[in-house]
């Protein structure tokens, strides 16, 4: 009889196309999830998703004969202790790119090795190992376009996804572990139920991920290239990011399914998967990315931290409708359209001169898809401090951006309903509407909807002056 093995779930909460599961299931297998505390622990919104994802995974595993064991604490101690308790020689898990996770895995591997056991890591969350792809000069990629070309060429021979196991052999006498409710992942009284609306938009779990992918392929892929920047468009985006972040579906499954479907939007959609890979490539080679600017000159950037401005941005009370609509969408459903994320992020770091780390932290706590690599890479891109960043002097005007990408105001009217009666001409600039128009729409500026918290021209000038200061170029 084969010795038992531990399957340590992390960012791969699924049965299909799970190489770690396939390797561990050669004999008796003990599936385990360990909830960790610390700086890389999931934020509030992601904890809600994690609760429901673990419930779905637990049901799927129990149905195949090997119940999921839930633990809470330090896996560097818990995993080796559990391996010794059941006599497991191997622990199988998916490789992670986060710096804290890499340190944890190295220490867990060392502890297991001292006992004659081993930690075996598999690629479960990415299309390609981030440490293997190099430039012709042998260096990590720092620019997205050549990275995407190189990876796209490699993925032409991407193996097909693995099927889920029909049956698993349980480990006799396995510990019971914690009850899911004991992990306290959901908001609990007296805390308000800020997640109340999440379930009306999302279905966490592997089945929900597969259903979301099927619906997007049927309704959104063909028009993805032309509709992905319209925040009000139904199926303008896939909505797969929370499922991918938690590993309820693999990027390999998405890649193959999209290519099999084909259509005019295919190439543009696949490039979004490659951007996700690029973010993890950057994080692997630049582990400081979530905390420090990748461009050293930005360490001296003269930010102007202001809790009042930050709070207005967080709550969608800036006076600029496209920004406010995005921030309210984020608060209510744990997700924000990607185009609006860029607009809202640019407004925070440039017009308001608030540190990008503050925006990153807020997104990490409120996004259901709060991926450390993608979140930090995107914020550094907007801030101009990343390896392959938008120039700092590229400053999105939120009024013009709103008029370009939400011309009829459908997105703003949904998430800022107090503006719904404004005519299209003023939906993105209520502060410029004549008083008679405001009264006709039932709006008292500064009461029903806030007046702008910053003048756009003044904010732009301050941002350019700050950028000139770190360049030592007063004429910039």
Label this structure with key terms.
five-stranded parallel β-sheet, DNA Cyclobutane Dipyrimidine Photolyase, subunit A, domain 3, 5 strands, 5% strand, Serine Threonine Protein Phosphatase 5, Tetratricopeptide repeat, Rossmann fold, mainly alpha, 45% helix
Description:
- With 476 residues, the chain is mainly alpha-helical.
- The chain folds into three domains: 5-124, HUPs (Rossmann fold, 3-Layer(aba) Sandwich); 126-160 and 204-287, Alpha Horseshoe (Serine Threonine Protein Phosphatase 5, Tetratricopeptide repeat); 296-469, DNA Cyclobutane Dipyrimidine Photolyase, subunit A, domain 3 (Orthogonal Bundle).
- Helices cover 45% and strands 5% of the residues.
- Strands 3-2-1-4-5 form a five-stranded parallel sheet, with helices on both faces.
- Strand 1, helix 1 (19-24) and strand 2 (29-35) form a beta-alpha-beta unit.
- The relative contact order is 0.11.
Unreliable runs: none
Assign an overall shape: globular
Tell me the strand percentage band.
Answer: 5-15%
Order of helices and strands: EHEHEHEHEHHHHHHHHHHHHHHH
Tell me what the CATH architecture of the largest domain is. Answer: Orthogonal Bundle
If helices are DSSP runs of H or I spanning 4 or more residues, what is the number of helices? 19
The tally of strands reads 5
CATH homology group of the largest domain: DNA Cyclobutane Dipyrimidine Photolyase, subunit A, domain 3
The profile of the biggest β sheet is: 5 strands, parallel
Computed Rg: 24 Å
Secondary structure category: mainly alpha
């Amino acid at each position: 009889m084969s010795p038992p093995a531990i399957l340590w779930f992390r960012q791969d909460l699924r049965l299909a196309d799970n190489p770690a599961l396939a390797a561990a299931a050669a004999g008796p297998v003990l599936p385990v999830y360990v909830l960790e505390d610390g700086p890389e622990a999931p934020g509030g919104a992601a904890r809600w998703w994690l609760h429901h994802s673990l419930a779905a995974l637990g049901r799927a595993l129990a149905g195949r004969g090997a119940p999921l064991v839930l633990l809470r604490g330090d896996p560097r101690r818990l995993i080796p202790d559990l391996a010794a308790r059941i006599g497991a020689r191997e622990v199988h898990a998916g490789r992670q790119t986060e710096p804290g996770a890499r340190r944890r895995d190295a220490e867990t591997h060392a502890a297991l090795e001292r006992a004659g056991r081993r930690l075996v890591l598999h690629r479960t969350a990415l299309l390609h190992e981030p440490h293997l792809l190099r430039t012709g000069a042998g260096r990590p990629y720092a620019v997205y376009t050549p990275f995407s070309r190189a990876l796209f060429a490699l993925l032409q021979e991407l193996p097909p996804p693995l099927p889920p196991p029909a049956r698993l052999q349980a480990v006799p006498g396995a510990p019971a572990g914690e009850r899911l409710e004991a992990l306290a992942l959901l908001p609990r009284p007296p805390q308000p139920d800020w997640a109340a609306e999440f379930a009306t938009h999302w279905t966490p779990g592997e089945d929900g991920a597969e259903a979301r992918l099927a619906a997007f392929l049927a309704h959104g892929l063909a028009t993805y290239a032309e509709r992905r920047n319209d925040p009000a468009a139904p199926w303008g985006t896939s909505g797969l990011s929370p499922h991918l972040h938690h590993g309820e579906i693999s990027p390999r499954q998405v890649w193959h399914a999209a290519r099999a479907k084909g259509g005019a939007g295919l190439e543009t959609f696949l490039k979004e998967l490659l951007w996700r890979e690029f973010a993890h490539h950057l994080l692997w080679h630049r582990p400081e990315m979530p905390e420090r600017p990748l461009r050293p000159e930005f360490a001296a950037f003269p930010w102007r931290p202001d809790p009042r401005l930050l709070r207005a941005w967080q709550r969608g009370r800036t006076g600029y409708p496209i920004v406010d609509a995005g921030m309210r969408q984020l608060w209510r459903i744990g997700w924000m359209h990607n185009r609006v994320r860029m607009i809202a992020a640019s407004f925070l770091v440039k017009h308001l001169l608030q540190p990008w780390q503050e925006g990153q932290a807020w997104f990490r706590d409120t996004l259901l898809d709060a991926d450390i690599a993608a979140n930090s890479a995107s914020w550094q891109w907007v801030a101009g401090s990343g390896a392959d960043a938008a120039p700092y002097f590229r400053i999105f005007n939120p009024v013009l951006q709103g008029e370009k990408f939400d011309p009829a105001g459908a997105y703003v009217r949904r998430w800022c309903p107090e503006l719904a009666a404004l005519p299209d001409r003023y939906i993105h600039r209520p502060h410029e509407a004549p008083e008679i128009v405001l009264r006709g729409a039932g709006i008292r500026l500064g009461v029903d909807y806030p007046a702008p918290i910053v003048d756009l021209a003044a904010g732009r000038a301050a941002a350019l002056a700050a950028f000139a200061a770190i360049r030592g170029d007063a004429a910039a």
